[in-house]
């Protein structure tokens, strides 16, 4: 073996040894969990709950950073460019599966630019309105919307957000086009709904439950097959007169592509521990959701599920003709 070959082998051994050491010592610093929406929204709430628990398991602080804009694609792009060492994580919802169809010029690939870690939760949606909306029930709401479609304003958290997708399906289901008011996050949209600046929206229970229970907004229906235990007096859309209108917002955790498998597995284990955490389960329940089953909180399950969801939403979005630059 000549000198050049010996140097190459030694260098390779050094690199491999350094990588193995880094993986065995993971995490070696604070972990940043990117949420691609404004603070105070439903995805932010989910992230902060599991981040608190994962902090204890990983023995390093897991902080949540909100990188909002463009329906979650700005935050996603930032994570895709991050070092694949496990110190940058990404929590996104159903919008991660719709972005490939909604956006013509993504700088990343929803599948190929990330390492899936696991599913987190499926969150029901609620159809809610300002507290002084005249309609007393869902049937009256539909009549009101159809009669005032040029005046009614529908808030959402921006193109590709869960509230945007729900609203798009809702308007298709009732065959009525309403004036849409996009925001840079569900938090700001909810603030304007509370203030009466907009009329109604379709949002996740994690963001609406406390507002509904306090009487600050009016709830008309939930978008699940069965009623939500924490909001048991609110009918499903099917019960209220809109058959087969069902949508739940799933959340998944990711790392940048190339993150070593031992690191991915360690984060996945911490996620699974978080989803069994009594405090997390209790808070999820109060917010109208629950952790996914253990077999869904794995890299393999999220990888498969994401592909299925992309295939599911692509024809729906194309038929609606909704795109963003």
Automatic annotation (TrEMBL):
Arranged from A to Z, the UniProt key words for this protein are: Signal
Taken from the record, one Pfam family name reads: TctC
Superkingdom, according to UniProt? Bacteria
Keyword ATP-binding appears in the UniProt entry: no
- Which sequence ranges form a coiled-coil region, renumbered to this chain? none
Keyword Signal, does the record have it?
Answer: yes
Instruction: Give start-end of the signal peptide.
Output: 1-22
Family from the record: Belongs to the UPF0065 (bug) family.
Instruction: Write down what this protein is called.
Output: Tripartite tricarboxylate transporter substrate binding protein BugD
